[in-house]
Amino acid sequence: MLLAGWITTPALGASALQCVPYARIVSGVNIRGDALTWWDQAASRYQRGHAPRRGAVLTFRPMGPMTLGHVAVVSKVLDDRRLLIRHANWSVPGAIEEDVPVIDVSEEGDWSQVRVWHSPTQTMGARTNPTFGFIYSATSRLRPFEPDPALGTSVRLATADADMMEKTTDAATQQVATLQRAARPAPRLNLDMRAMRFAEATPSARSLADIIADVKRDARLR
Predict the structure, then answer these.
(1) Does 105 lie in the same domain as 80?
(2) Which residue pairs, CB below 8 angstroms and at least 24 apart, start in 124-128?
(3) Does 120 fall in a domain?
(4) pLDDT of 65-115, one tens digit each?
């Protein structure tokens, strides 16, 4: 599906809609301040965790140019590793993206590392983003967001095409799983040094079966 109309960026000097007011309105989680402070602020006010729920706020850690963190609202949980979110100011300054996918690429399956849909290219973003976790709203109901000039200029992007989204997230999940398997340390081979010394001291004319039989017999005698 094409984007909803032309993608326009805020004019020079104009402010763009930020992720914080958008997430606060849509989720009902009444926290203010930069996105990177939401996780700590929520500690005494809301339940927090590492499992997605509809209406929960996914909080991102600062990373690279994203120095203030990021917040997004879960609109639907697809399975253990995939969900849909609504958020603002991610792919394009001030842009609102609704019901776009996020995949969990963490080794532990705890949503501590995710990849996020990039609407302009209609693909999963290549960057892996670290997160704090989820802040749970009092209700799973998502509230509508109406453009408000007081919150900054914005443009609404179309929901991702379902078929393309399915193919892309499946491919991304498989790619991440392959990378994770490759990064795991190789199994360590534990050698029985008694057997090695015995074999080294044994004439090479003997067969391997004879050597193994002698080692087993020696072990029983011990």
Answers:
(1) yes
(2) 124/168, 124/169, 124/172, 127/64
(3) yes
(4) 899 999 999 999 999 999 999 999 999 999 999 999 999 999 999 999 999
